[in-house]
Amino acid sequence: MPSESQIPIPSQAAAKRFAARLALFYGTLFGLVGTHLPFFPVWLKAIGIDPSWIGIITAVPSLTRFTVLPFITGFAEKHHALRGAIIATGFLSALGFVIIGTQHQALAVLLVYVVTACLWTPMTPLTDAYALKGVARYGLNWGPMRLWGSAAFVAGALICGLLVDVIAARHLIWVIAAVATVGAIVSLGLQPLDVPGTAPAAPLRATTLLRDPGFLAIIIAAALIQGSHAAYYTFASIAWQNAGLGGLTIAALWALGVLAEIIVFALSPRFTLSPATLVIIAGLGGVVRWVVMAQEPPLPVLAVVQLAHGLTFGLTQIGTMGLLLRHVPHHVMARGQGYLTACTGIVTSLASVLSGAIYAWHGQGVYYLMAAMALAAAAVMWLARHRLQHQPHSAGSGG
Asked: What count of Cα atoms within 13 Å lies in the side-chain half-sphere of residue 104?
């Protein structure tokens, strides 16, 4: 990565402007996740939807990631319209959450949520592709910009946790819709970045990535680790609520995990281990985390275990982004992100549906399945580590 002294002064100003606006948007994007992820299932329960339907409904975003999403990311990249696609999906997603709030029957919620998720889920890979293009152009580090998303996740979860103890849970959807609206407005401040005509003369076909064993290892390992969070994302808040924990305590547990994630993102420019090694460590950390969660630990132990989120999520993200920068050509980065998200969607959707069935019968025992997924991810990356070290593509500078 070029040092700041190597970047011309006008580029330094442009880089700072890009980084600041992207950090702000990451904040709104993941502030929405911070209100939605822990408390959307709570809202579903509050309006009378049973656990089996909750498992199906919460699996919808994952399903859209390998159906509609790759087409949207590919279309946006082909037309050099990452920023425009982010803005459009942001406003339409906000409208979708408003409509969801007017529904109270399981089937109706499911149908509207399907449409909303088709618009909402592409926002993260579009933003990550936009970010990595900026990283390559300005010589920035991705982690310090992304950490503001995690910080906003904490704020969103804490605010929603406070509101759970103040307002009826059936009103939580309006908090989610409000945050989505703020994010749509903030997206208007993102700088134009894509410039038509910058692709190489003989560009690599995006589908070629799917025939590259190294790229497949990256997306499979990442998908298995991130998919191993399915039971945690869907049922942790419900299980903790059933155990007698209050809304603020639940939010604090979520926030504790993300605080560990923030520290990982902040320290990421200093990491010296290879990205593949980081992913392996993340997978092994997931094995330990989910096995402990299966034991229904008391609150003090649970608080300590939550710190492992810095490994299972944060370190996986850092390692995966580092691998993509090294092995995915710059001009197909959005499609690479789309394939990554699609693979993650397939794994996570299956894990979410299975989690709903297993949790209904075995409760916290569902985390043993999550541990097995994390172990498989570590094995995949271990077997592919030499190929990834010796056969990189040039995707641009930056870290």
From this structure: 7
DSSP class of residue 205 equals: P
Distance separating alpha carbons of residues 94 and 177, to the nearest angstrom: 6
Please tell me which of 74-78, 168-172, 274-278, 332-336 the model is most confident about, judged by mean pLDDT.
Answer: 274-278
C-alpha 50, offset from chain centre: 26
Sorted by sequence, the CB contacts under 8 Å of residue 100 that are 6+ apart come out as: 109, 112, 113, 116, 173, 177
Please give the average per-residue pLDDT across 82-107, as a whole number.
Answer: 94
* pTM of the predicted structure, to 2 decimals: 0.77
What confidence tens digit (pLDDT) does each residue in 226-264 have? Answer: 999 999 988 888 888 888 888 788 878 887 888 898 999
Assigned token pair, 355: 């989690």
- The residue length of the chain stands at 399
User: Is residue 384 predicted with pLDDT exceeding 70?
Assistant: yes
Distance of alpha carbon 279 from the chain centroid:
15
Residue pointed to by tokens 């339409």: 92
262 token code pair: 């923030």
Report d(CA 32, CA 49) in Å as an integer. 22
Find tokens 């109706």 and name the residue: 108
The band of 203, judged by pLDDT with boundaries at 50, 70 and 90, is low
SS3 percent helix, strand, coil of the chain, rounded to 5, is 80, 0, 20
